[in-house]
Amino acid sequence: MSYRVAVLAGDGIGPEVMTQARRVLQAVEQKFNLVIDYQEYDVGGIAIDNHGTPLPNSTLRGCEQSDAILFGSVGGPKWENLPPEQQPERGALLPLRGHFELFCNLRPATLHPGLEALSPLRADISEKGFDILVVRELTGGIYFGKPKGREGSGDQEFAYDTMRYSRSEIERIARNAFIAAQSRRQKVTSVDKANVLACSVLWREVVEQVAAEFSDVELEHIYIDNATMQLLKRPNEFDVMLCSNLFGDIISDECAMLTGSMGLLPSASTNSKGFGLYEPAGGSAPDIAGKGVANPVAQILSAAMMLRYSLNQNAAAQCIEEAVAKALSNGYLTGELISPGSEHTAKTTKQMGDIIVQYINESN
Ligand SMILES: NC(=O)c1ccc[n+]([C@@H]2O[C@H](COP(=O)([O-])OP(=O)(O)OC[C@H]3O[C@@H](n4cnc5c(N)ncnc54)[C@H](O)[C@@H]3O)[C@@H](O)[C@H]2O)c1
Ligand SMILES: CC(C)[C@H](C(=O)O)[C@@H](O)C(=O)O
Ligand SMILES: [Mg+2]
């Protein structure tokens, strides 16, 4: 099979981890006889520097002509003082999500067996492991609601955002969450703030209606503040966590850290046609960029999700996931995963890529 993928490495650690993801993809392409044509495009800060805009037309057109987008990360201190709508995140990532209607964001967070010690959780909690899928609504809510702005001056200056959800937006993301739960542990936890927000009251109502179509799936509701707490106390009791845009952003960072690092959490953002953008859940990590020490696993697992959800290449995706799990459980860890006093020595970004490629080549 032959496919076309738009590669948008972006800023900070984006290009470093993308290099390793490309090597890993090359290894599975050979193994599974796939032909993928990669076209690279500027996005984010680098696009501001090279083209004067975070999302050049050439990048958008390139994405439109592809089967999927493999995305690194955007943003950094260099562009933080630009007007908000011209910054990499607001000017490139959110418009891309909106343009392609990538409403369904999947962020799987698993505490890999044998890696319990990486989690900052207390041992009696982490030893039970966890396997959570955050299903985050990605093109609505307070991120996209209008009006949004800033007015007035001096003491009277004010700013506002609008949180807004329609029934159909809630319904389609809820349905995705229930379908995902059917092939997992048949449980959906819907996260909201229905004791305060009108959007959450509607959210709860619609989720209940969708749940009625899925009698095999258990539904529980939880407030966002309680959810952040229960995740620390009993993460193994969660299966699918269904979240609105803002709550999913927060919950997924927490889930990432519970596995040990932001650098482990991949994500898939898809539309109703199966087209998707695949990116690590974390950001451009300016604090470690350029040092060759970033963890490439989230980017590599995002590439695996791309193979599974947009290119329909499940076996190749699984091969990558198994190689990553093997590398981690054999003690191949980047620096941020290693606690003081541990016997592990930190691997570089490239060494992680090397071992994962090697395990793919050795696999049957
Ligand atoms: N999708 C995206 O492009 C995206 C996502 C989140 C943040 N951002 C942007 O990235 C910039 C930095 O944001 P931030 O510091 O809040 O979040 P961040 O996720 O970039 O970093 C948070 C912490 O996690 C660490 N980390 C993240 N990824 C890592 C990896 N692969 N390996 C090892 N450690 C890793 C960082 O070193 C840092 O200590 C900001 O401009 C922000 O807007 C972009
Ligand atoms: C960079 C930012 C706009 C983005 C978000 O808030 O969605 C990021 O934090 C994420 O989680 O993908
Ligand atoms: Mg985030």
From TrEMBL:
Highest taxon in the source lineage: Bacteria
Sites where the protein binds Mg(2+): D225, D249, D253
UniProt keyword annotations, A-Z: Amino-acid biosynthesis, Branched-chain amino acid biosynthesis, Cytoplasm, Leucine biosynthesis, Magnesium, Manganese, Metal-binding, NAD, Oxidoreductase
Site positions for Important for catalysis: Y143, K193
Location within or outside the cell: Cytoplasm
Statement: the UniProt record of this protein carries the keyword Cytoplasm: yes
Binding site for NAD(+): 76-89, 283-295
Cofactor info, note text: Binds 1 Mg(2+) or Mn(2+) ion per subunit.
UniProt key word Zinc-finger: no
One GO MF term: magnesium ion binding
UniProt domain Isopropylmalate dehydrogenase-like: residue ranges: 4-356
Location, primary (coarse class): cytoplasm
Pathway involvement of the protein, from the record: Amino-acid biosynthesis; L-leucine biosynthesis; L-leucine from 3-methyl-2-oxobutanoate: step 3/4
Enzyme class: oxidoreductase
GO terms under cellular component: cytosol
Reaction equations catalysed: (2R,3S)-3-isopropylmalate + NAD(+) = 4-methyl-2-oxopentanoate + CO2 + NADH
GO biological process terms held by the UniProt record: L-leucine biosynthetic process
Protein name as annotated: 3-isopropylmalate dehydrogenase
Protein source organism: Paraferrimonas haliotis
Species classification: Bacteria, Pseudomonadati, Pseudomonadota, Gammaproteobacteria, Alteromonadales
